[in-house]
Amino acid sequence: MSDEITAPWWAAAREGRLLLQRCTECGHLQHYPRALCTSCGGGELGWRESAGFGVVDSFTEVHRAASPGMAVPYVVARVRLDEGPVLLTNLVGEGPWCCDQRVRVAWRDLPEDGRRLPVFESLPVDS
């Protein structure tokens, strides 16, 4: 749920923009939004828009639904953004998937309240 720390992130996500927090004291970029910098502990954090490109660090294909009615299979992955932060996310679209594969952000609508979650899809080989 949105709070004063995450509200700017959710607002940008509704618009299809992926924001990263940036520490104004040390320049560290981080995701998910937090009250303090995970590098220096500073409390002065701003926002920077991500280009939305990265690589798959690791992934697994899940064949057992986590809750009733959930579609399977689905792919859970760690994606390292070109800017550095790592997101735990889903890979969508056609595989096959592999580590070090280039991906780009896509968006999954959440049915409850108009929010969106970043997911990642494969980039064409020549991108």
From TrEMBL:
<dbReference type="InterPro" id="IPR012340">
    <property type="entry name" value="NA-bd_OB-fold"/>
</dbReference>
<dbReference type="InterPro" id="IPR022002">
    <property type="entry name" value="ChsH2_Znr"/>
</dbReference>
<dbReference type="InterPro" id="IPR052513">
    <property type="entry name" value="Thioester_dehydratase-like"/>
</dbReference>
<dbReference type="InterPro" id="IPR002878">
    <property type="entry name" value="ChsH2_C"/>
</dbReference>
<feature type="domain" description="ChsH2 C-terminal OB-fold">
    <location>
        <begin position="47"/>
        <end position="108"/>
    </location>
</feature>
<dbReference type="Pfam" id="PF01796">
    <property type="entry name" value="OB_ChsH2_C"/>
</dbReference>
<protein>
    <submittedName>
        <fullName>Zn-ribbon domain-containing OB-fold protein</fullName>
    </submittedName>
</protein>
<feature type="domain" description="ChsH2 rubredoxin-like zinc ribbon">
    <location>
        <begin position="10"/>
        <end position="45"/>
    </location>
</feature>
<dbReference type="Pfam" id="PF12172">
    <property type="entry name" value="zf-ChsH2"/>
</dbReference>
